Amino acid sequence: MRFPYSAALCGTLVFLALADQAVADAATGRDLSRGCAVCHGANGIGTAPNNPNLAGQTEFYLIKQMQDFRDGRRENEQMSIIAETLTDEEIRSLAAWYSSIKITVELPAK
């Protein structure tokens, strides 16, 4: 079954997501991230095996995950509590900061 409006809908959703992210402020996110550094490191690299790396993740992914923690769609003993206090603007700013960190990958030698 084909949905003739699906392409237009997808385009609209992408536009809205990008417009929403446009108000994100990476500098504010950097300031907010000081509280995240204990688990996620000052550079966005997790400080323990159970703490994910946030550096270099896409803004969309980070926003979605933090909103899911905040809204109860995703649960973690610590993140659920921390995220419940975050506003949408703070989430966007944190995502802007972590996604702006550039990471590199080095393949192992043969």
TrEMBL record:
InterPro entries: Cyt_c-like_dom, Cyt_c-like_dom_sf, Cytochrome_c_Oxidase_Subunit. The keyword Iron applies. Keywords: Electron transport, Heme, Iron, Metal-binding, Signal, Transport. The keyword Transmembrane helix does not apply. GO terms for molecular function: electron transfer activity; heme binding; metal ion binding. Pfam families: Cytochrom_C. This is Class I diheme cytochrome c4. It comes from Yoonia vestfoldensis SKA53.
